[in-house]
Design a protein that fits this description.
Elements lengths: L1 E10 L2 E7 L1 H6 L5 E5 L7 E4 L2 E3 L4 E7 L3 H9 L5 E2 L1 E6 L10 E7 L3 H13 L3 E8 L8 H7 L2 E6 L6 E2 L2 H10 L6 E5 L2 H11 L6 E4 L15 E4 L2 E4 L6 E3 L5 H8 L3 H14 L9
Parallel strand pairs: 9-10, 9-13, 10-11, 11-12, 13-14
Antiparallel strand pairs: 1-2, 1-7, 2-6, 3-4, 3-8, 5-6, 14-17, 15-16
Helix pairs in contact: 2-8, 3-4, 5-6
């Protein structure tokens, strides 16, 4: 069992957990992820490693409650409870070098996995420009950690309730059109956001990296569920990624595959809600 050390609500249906897993914490690098299973009858889900603490052996993950397992985790797992399986770190770590000037773009819950990458890039001597966005101020989180990780930070919201009104891709385009020399871009968030960011940087010839969070089961490349087309070839996000060159990813196919199990996921969530009409959420 892997004990939950901390649980906090950081946004609407978004929780931050610190889980005691010292061996994972020691080995993890920015960009990697883990796979958890809550209990014997639970499904396996991937979660990006947001932070680690060698002193406590804790790993930080941010969970958005959108399906049966993430909702169950929020309802029924609190501080002191144990998670049955934590497997990681998995995937290839981010390429952290001194590139020069980099832009790190995070949308929605994608801000969480972007944070350790931005911090590591700055520690490597890069000038880091951050752009984070959400639907509204209510849905925005990790603003201060990102501000501390970047040399400058731009905040965007769809409704203008925080920062500037618009999308993260709007600010990305504005910076690129200003003539600033940008050496690399990271963009993490919903697939459609990453696709738009990729098309925004393409005319400028700036290498752009995205993190693909497709359907994963075993996390070792055996099941093939996380298959994604990159430069016309099949890749597996769990072992070849999760990061890929955005200009080589077939985002239309990716989004089609992501929607493949929507009906099954909705049925699973509805069954869980029927069995658990009143959640017993525990933040302590």
């Amino acid at each position: 069992m892997y004990r939950i050390l901390s649980k906090e609500t950081v946004g609407p249906a978004i929780r931050e957990y610190i889980v005691e897993a010292p061996e994972v914490a020691r080995a993890a690098r920015p960009g990697q992820f883990l796979v958890i299973r809550l209990h014997e009858d639970g499904e396996r889900i991937p979660l990006t490693i947001v932070d680690t603490d060698d002193a406590t052996g804790g790993i930080t993950v941010v969970v958005q409650e959108v399906g049966k397992t993430t909702l169950e985790m929020g309802d029924r797992f609190g501080v002191g409870d144990g998670i049955l399986d934590v497997v990681g770190p998995l995937g290839e770590a981010s390429e952290i070098e001194r590139f020069g000037t980099v832009i790190c773009v995070g949308g929605g819950v994608g801000i969480a996995p972007l944070f350790p990458i931005a911090r590591a890039l700055r520690e490597a001597g890069n000038r880091v420009i951050g752009i984070i966005g959400a639907r509204s101020q209510e849905h925005l989180f990790y603003e201060e950690p990102m501000r501390n990780a970047c040399d400058e930070l731009h905040v965007m919201t769809d409704d203008g309730s925080a920062g500037d009104r618009g999308f993260v891709s709007d600010k990305l385009r504005e910076i690129l059109e200003s003539g600033l020399s940008v050496d690399r871009v990271w963009a993490i968030g919903p697939a459609i956001m990453m696709k738009v960011c990729a098309e925004t940087t393409r005319p400028f010839g700036v290498k752009t990296i995205v993190s693909i969070n497709s359907v994963m089961i075993d996390g070792t490349g055996m099941c093939g569920g996380c298959r994604v087309e990159v430069a016309g070839a099949a890749k597996f996000a769990c072992v070849d990624g999760p990061e890929f060159d955005a200009h080589e990813v077939n985002f239309d196919l990716l989004m089609s595959r992501q929607a493949l199990y929507c009906e099954d996921e909705a049925c699973s969530l509805e069954r869980y809600k029927m069995r658990n009409p009143v959640g017993e959420e525990r933040d302590q």
